[in-house]
Amino acid sequence: MRVLLILSLFLINLVAFDSTIQIVKNLEKHPRLVVVDAGSLNVDEKIKRKFLKLLIGDLKVSAHFNVDDSYAKMDYLSNNGLATLAKSGVELIVKCKIEKNTSAKLTASAKLINAKNGDLIYEKFYSISKPNRYPFLAHNVAIDINKYFGAPSISWMKNYIIFARYTKSGESEIVVSDYTLSFKKVIVKGGLNIFPKWANAKQDSFYYTSYNGLHPTLYLVNIYTGKKRKIVSSPGMVVCSDVSRDGSKLLITMAPNDQPDIYLYDVNSGSKKRLTKYSGIDVGGSFVDNDQNIVFVSERLGYPNIFSKSINGSNVEQMIYHGKNNSSCSTFGKYIVYSSREGQNSFGKNTFNLYLISTQTDYIRKLTTSGKNMFPRFADDGESVIFIKYIGQKSALGVLRLNANKSFLFPLNAGKIQSIDW
Amino acid sequence: MLEFLKFIQGRVMKTNTLLSLILTIFIFSGCSQKTPEIDTDSVVDSGYSTPSTDISNDGQIDSMNTMNQDVTFGSDEERIGAIQNEVQTVYFATDSYQLSSSEMEKVEQNSHIFNGDLASDLSIKLEGNCDEWGTDEYNYALGLKRAKSVKDLLESSGVDVGRMALISYGESKPICSEHNDGCWQQNRRVDFLLLP
Question: Averaged over B81-100, what is the pLDDT?
Answer without folding.
Answer: 95
